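Researcher: Hi, I'm a grad student and pretty new to this. My advisor asked me to get structures for two proteins we've been looking at. I'm not sure of the right format, so I'll just paste the first sequence and hope you can take it from there.
Model: That works fine. Here's the first sequence with its structure tokens right after it:
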Amino acid sequence: MAFKGIQPINYGGREVWPLVEGGKGVSATNHASSGAWAAAGGIGTVSAVNADSYDPTGKIIPQVYEQLTRRERHEQLIRYGIDGAVAQVERAYEIASGKGAININVLWEMGGAQQILEGVLEKTRGMVTGVTCGAGMPYRLSEIAAKYQVNYLPIISSARAFRALWKRAYHKVSELMAAVVYEDPWLAGGHNGLSNAEDPLKPEDPYPRVKALRDTMRAEGISDDVPIVMAGGVWFLREWEDWIDNPELGQIAFQFGTRPLLTHESPIPQGWKDALRELEPGDVLLHRFSPTGFYSSAVKTPFLRNLEARSERQIPYSKVEAGEHTVRLDVGVGNKNFWVTPKDRERAREWVAQGHNEGVRTPDDTIVFVCEAERDTIQQDQKDCMGCLSHCGFSSWKDHDDYTTGRLADPRSFCIQKTLQDIAHGGPVEDNLMFAGHAAYRFKQDPFYSNNFTPSVKELVDRILTGD
């Protein structure tokens, strides 16, 4: 018996539960988890972000970039991206055996996003029901969906963002817009769509924001039958009872990103699964270190704490004596001429005494202090860049025009491709970026997971449908 008011919806010509599996980044969602989610009657989402492909024996092919130039490595990344996502979709489609639906998820800000999306849809005709896409303003999503006759589901974080996309492009392909995903910027894991008008430290209640989205959709003539998918912070459906069958909101579906991480079919390594069980409230940090420039939410691992500490060892400078910058910096920068305040020079001397003896410039006319090993890692990672983003703050890469953002590479950030590939394939949890939604602490509190119980995807979907 499904929780009261939860009814199947018509999606892609068949009845499915209004339960969407979040398509999580690099290899945190794959064919096994999404195929099983669809087989359980929901909408499974294959992540088409740098997905794994397989050799003839079924082993994952390591993504190695031996090309000399960034542009050649970027072309290789696109090839890996298409091959991997196609392999994932084919396998997921097979596991689903005609039940539920399979979506794919892409980040508009990933390097070569459009080429990868078109390459995948070209080779998986008839298998993919819809494309979810966020992280940026994906104006061309509707046009690509029309070309391959698949549904599209834009991911937005405000009514304003949706209206801009609709007015500019989506109204021309309204019939293929199957749903709008509202991803709450204070609750969801991964990259978050906080605008400059919103305060990262002051979460807003999602209900009025989703109501505003529905009002905007109605004003544009969009039917109430087009669901809004609530994404971020969803754990128990019973906590969303007033959203279900609510005439103010119209048709609502729910996306689960964090809960499916802890299932048998989830591809993340055991160390990551074990770490999820230990989280406490507040252990997920909304931060701005991502090289995308977006806010993102991840577990406060030592990796993330190190980035916080690195940014705290930071002072502004000028190239000439000016204003309060009256003394020359005499540590960490060799004989270079940097003028700072007397107080900041004292701070810099203290950091150097603690072993952070290398001053590295940032694009904002500041210097951060790191140890030699950390400086070497930063420089090597910047050299190894393979263009995984359309714009990368960490390496100054851009995937079009002259291939550079024109800004200094930012040592306060990190190589997101390296860390996400590492953690997804068994690298140490503490040394990497570990994305999770802000409700992840509930694994420890929810009796469903007690005594180290790990459900199958089918058991999880059945449990969710009870309201729990």
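Researcher: Oh nice, that was easy. Here's the second one.
Model: And its structure:
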Amino acid sequence: MDERETRHAQYWKQNLRYLVVLLSIWFVVSYGFGILLAEPLNAIHIFGFPMGFWFAQQGSIYVFVALIFVYVRLMNQLDRRFDVAED
């Protein structure tokens, strides 16, 4: 493998690492907080709604949108580090 292919492999390995971490966070928030831990979280209220219900209905969506912005920032940094930025 030449240097270009090695850098390409490193770039995609890091990209996949970001995806796994961010999707794991989303899974924990949506499935864990919204389904598995809903009953214990319902003892806490946010804006008058039980927290387990809130995570199932709204929280996982907000977290997903926030993770999109985090992913964009991380990928822009990665693009600059590997000199493939679109700036």
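Researcher: Is there anything I should tell my advisor about the second?
Model: You could mention this: Helices lie at 3-36, 38-41, 51-81.
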